[in-house]
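Below is one record:
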Amino acid sequence: MSAPAIPPATSPLDPDRYPQGDFFICDILDAAPKGDMAPMEHPIFSLSTRPEHRRRRYENGPNWIEVRPSDEGLATIHDRDVLIFCISQLVAAMNEGREPSRYVRFNASDLLRATNRAGGGAGYERLQAAFARLQGTQIVTNIVTGGQEITTAFSLIDQVRIVRRTDGGRMVEVEAKLSDWTWNAIRAHEVLTLHRDYFRLRKPLERRVYEIARKHCGLQPEWRISLGKLHLKCGSASDLRVFRQQVARIAAADAEHAHMPDYAVELAENDMVIFRLRREAPLFEVEVGRLAPETYPEARALAPGWDVYAIEADWRRWCEAEEIEPRNPERHFLKFCASWAGKRGRA
């Protein structure tokens, strides 16, 4: 007589109600803000605080971009906070050697805190409206990101889904699928670090002006652009006369309060807008994760007799100054060690 079948053991654990699957979980709450370069260079986001439904087209040499609104209107520069949050998380994870994904899952309250947005019911409603505009706005462009040119119409976010809500109706977790355009830029490290005070800038035009300065001035002591060219790059719907007044007010406020991050802004009499890197501005945050433990014996072999941890500190400072985020930090550090020791050996 055969033994009775034994039923499978029941796990003492509760089931995983939210398995990660293909989703990347955003969990690096202090990640340095990162923005992809193409929207810094080209006017994609609306500067209006009201729904904007005009179709816009911008041309710069051989590059062109057309932005088409949905019924909810064009995505705004404040909506861009969602993309900056996702990009920041993914880049930070890549710097730690983790595998990113264009499918991201995040806690809505974490996004609100990281981007200095108000919470409460109104904050969550504004966030949900941002998702709708990001998904509804259509982009057609020949601008290349990550070595790929995407010429079909695409959304800034391909898909958004609220995973669950509290009893009060507040969104808690969100799933988003980034566009190929944004994803290619992340994979190619076509991103720049933004000052955390970017999220504290109240006026949409201030944010846009800062983005342009960040892209073009960088770490140069000074960069100049004509008011007319800045007007085009900002994508402002105001005429040039009104735009001049708006920039003049930003420059006057900055002269009094030095509130613009990283760069002082001046409007000269000849209608040139001048950006100057602030001397007191800290080095831009560059995230280089912890090195693998086995890296240090190799570093000692390349720089015998030297303190490899002191060399590592110099390497990290150099990466900050040059805004370098190596794809392979261990290999990059070892190459730095060899160069560092070689220069001192010749001294």
In short: The longest helix spans residues 240-257. The two ends are 88 Å apart (CA to CA).
